[in-house]
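[Automated response] Your request has been received and processed.

Submitted sequence:
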Amino acid sequence: MYKYNDNNTSCFANVEDKGVNLNIHYHDCGESDDVVVMLHGSGPGASGWSNFNRNIEPLVTSGYRVILMDCPGWGKSDSIICTESRSKLNSRVLKGLLDKLNITRVHLIGNSMGGHSAVAFALAYPQAANRIILMGGGTGGASPFVPMPTEGIKLLQSVYRHPSQENVQKMMDVFVYDPKDLTPELIVGRLENILINQEHLKNFIKSLELNPRQFPDVTDCLSSISAPTLIIWGRNDRFVPMDLGLRLLANIPNSELHIFNNCGHWVQWEYADRFNTLVLDYLKIN
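Generated structure:
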C-alpha cells in the first residue's frame, strides 16, 4: 500500500495566465529541495495521479519531492478553451505553479502531451529545467512511416466526442501493448473520471475546432535545449510513432534514447519497475 494517495497529497493553487485566473490542482508528495515534476498526457480522464501513481513512491523514497500537476482542462483543474499551443499554455501554468511554491529548478518527466509540455517549458525557461525525461511525446509533426492521425489518436478523439465504456475499452486496448492487465474496474474507473467534468470534454473538442494543431512541431527549436534529456519510447506505440523519438534524439544535443520492446504508449505503467529504475539511475548521474 502506498503511503501517498490521491487524497492525502491533493492541493490547489490559483495561477494567473494571460489575465485568466485558473484553479490548478496538483499532488505534492515528499519533502526535498530536489523536485521532480510529472506531466500527464492528453487522454480523456487523464490526470497526474492516474498517469503516474505507479511511479511516485520510488522517487519519494529516493529523496525527491514529486509534483503532479493536472493541466488546465484535465483532472480537478479548471477547464479552458485553448486556441494556441497547448504545450506553451501548460508550460506557463506550470511555471506559475512553481513560482507559487517557491521552486526555482526541477526535473521534468512528461508522457505524451506532458512530453510536449516539458519541451515547451525547457525552451521557455531553460534556467528552471534540470534533467528532462520524455515518453511518447516531445515534438509534433507527421511521421513519414505511419498514417496520421494515428489509430490511437483517432480512438482518443472518439472518446472525447462519444464517451462510453465501449469506446474507452477500444482506446485503452491500443494504449498498451498487452491489454490483459486492463481490468473492468480500471476501464469503468477511467470512464467515471471522464464523466466527472464534461466541460473538459466539450472544451477539448472546441479547442480542436479553433486550432487543430494543439501540439505544433518544434523540431527546429530542439537544438537549443541544453538540459540532459532521456527519451523513452514503447516500440509498439500506436498513439505516437517511435520515429518521433528518433527525431528528438537527433536534435536534442545532450540526449539518449531507451526503447522498450512489446510496449505501447504507457511505458511508466506497463513497465513500472524497470521504468522507475531507469529514471532513478538517470537522475543520479553527475
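Summary generated for your ticket: Residues 72 and 79 are 6 Å apart (CA to CA). The chain has a mean pLDDT of 96.
If you did not submit this request, please reply to this message.
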